[in-house]
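Aim 2, interim progress. The first record below pairs a target sequence with its structure tokens.
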Amino acid sequence: MNDWTDRAATLADELIAAGKLHYPEWVAAVRAIPRHELVPVFYEQDPVTGDWLTRDATDPAWHDRIYSNRALFTKIGEATGSWGRAVVGLSSTSTPGLMTRMLEALDVHDGHDVLEIGTGTGYNAALLAHRLGDTHVFSVDIDGDLVELARHRLGGIGYRPIVVAADGARGLPEHAPYHRVIATCSVSAIPRAWLEQTRIGGLILADVKLSVHAGNLVLLRRHADRVEGRFDRNWAGFMSLRREVARAASPVDAGEPVARDRHEAVLRTTDVDTLRPWDNLVAWFLAQLTVPTEIGYRHTLDEQTGRPADVLLTTADGSWCEISDRTDDGFREVREAGPTPLWRAVENAHQLWQQLGQPGWDRFGLTATTDRQWVWLDAPDSDHTWPLDPPPTL
């Protein structure tokens, strides 16, 4: 790929024009990293057949995709879900624009030690190493195969940060403390190890997600007794942190269809028309904060066409609700059953969001200590706070 420097320069220019890249140090890093050496192969799913297509240097599409501002699946494998057993994406490299936006928000300076959670392809680690030098960059990933590939490919382009196969939730204590911690994966709460391994005055940038789409990036500053900060005004999302020890399977976790008897459900109507999490991400986050277990989101299948139809929400306690995709005079049918009134939680969250003045993400913040965490609106001691209980393993 003889013209990769031109392609990398063009990518940098596109990120600058899109407002995702500003500072000369990071512009230089994007221009200097041969991304194709770190992502020699990626996978795309055919939107019609669902088949996975392999893209490498023999494919003309590969060249353009590698140096474009888009996420790429870099590892696929079989998984079981409500769809049955299928091949799905297991690991990906994020859009370069999201990487540069996060790196600039991290506010790194010469001499800073940075811990990255989620090595992936090594591209983010390469950007950090170009900016700070190898000895100041530490990266961990649960996938030993990915770590070996990333370490080898990074060395091939002249970068040798410390890359370790380890459980990201435990950080990397042997090289702590760090001035900055950045996670390129999502977590349901801030792992205690990240707090303890960050220097006082340091920063943690992580994607806190309580369930699918229910959360966002948050930038936290380390104080003597806590980390604290606000969510980013722009939404972003990552694949979940993979753990060494899997959680106990549940109907939601395993993706199994929830057994439901529509005859026992309460039938009513709703005028809330934001059915899907991405229709109102903040309200969906508020709804999840009030439900004590993860809300699973999927669609039922139309019996005649086999295509997605009504929205189906489920939780591990067996609760479920179906919301019709059809309206009648602005109202939709809702069928709800189980101990947790799921759609009522969504309705209440929408009402609260309206009452609070339709706040954006940047009015919300997070505080985490070694024994508790909570989300707040406007200030940590405001009248509107929600507990965020981390799993014991975090």
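The second target in this work package is listed in the same format:
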Amino acid sequence: MRADLSDLQAFLAVARAGGFRDGARAAGISASGLSEAVRRLEAKLGVRLFHRTTRSVLPTEAGARLLERLGPALAEVDAALDVVNGFRDRPAGTLRLNVPVSAARLVLPRIVPPFLAAYSDIQIEVTAEDSFVDVLAAGCDAGIRYDERLEQDMIAVPIGPRIQRFATAASPAYLRRHGRPEHPRELIGHACLRGRFTSGTMMIWEFERDGEIVRVDPMGPLLVGVGAATDLAVDAAIAGTGIITLFEDWLRPHLDSGVLDPVLEPWWQSFSGPFLYYSGRRLVPAPLRAFIDFIKISAE
């Protein structure tokens, strides 16, 4: 039984987008054309691939199993076709990246514009989320993580600043009302603006000075999802609601303007910068190879 490649790609677009309308927009075809391709594929396979309701489109068990194997397989097909890019004067195609929100905000803005200016035939699609995903199954060429410990078949390349820090800050008005903590443990008595990862794990605040590490699980009036809702916590800190801990680069404009004051600065902890990671099991697509070479040259 041999299914048409375009029908398989239509199934993949719907599954990843969670619906025919968004899938059609991502695939660049009409929703009716996408729906017909999926019906054709289901008829050929003899199984239903999606549960369809007025509110959602979700893979059946058979659809989920197909999706699990199909994403990496089609990625290999794309990589094989990309071989011809090596015969072009300039690489062309689409580079798909899956990155945390912090990287989309703090790392990529310094890299993407000059890269696109240098490679006019390449497009970049960025998905920003803070849950760990299988980049191949998600249809992406590469991802970014803040940890070089990756699976054995993954290759990691440094991207962006090699050393970053977490900064703690509060508004001058908050510090006038509640006082300035002099030790991380004093944060227990303060209103702290906290974050929770998509996994449900609470973000523990960690401080370090002269080899001493102090971990604090503070309380406070506001809890936000790490990533997309982080700016709400920053705005609350500026308004005097409480104390925030976040990437120093994220808070730096507000520290420089004076709307936030640094707190516990001698205790701010440094950590390793992010890494671009991609699979070592497949051919590297030409757009990704150009991107890797670009960030390596930019780091020199």
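The chain has three domains: 5-69, 90-153+273-299, 163-272. This observation will shape the mutagenesis plan for the next reporting period.
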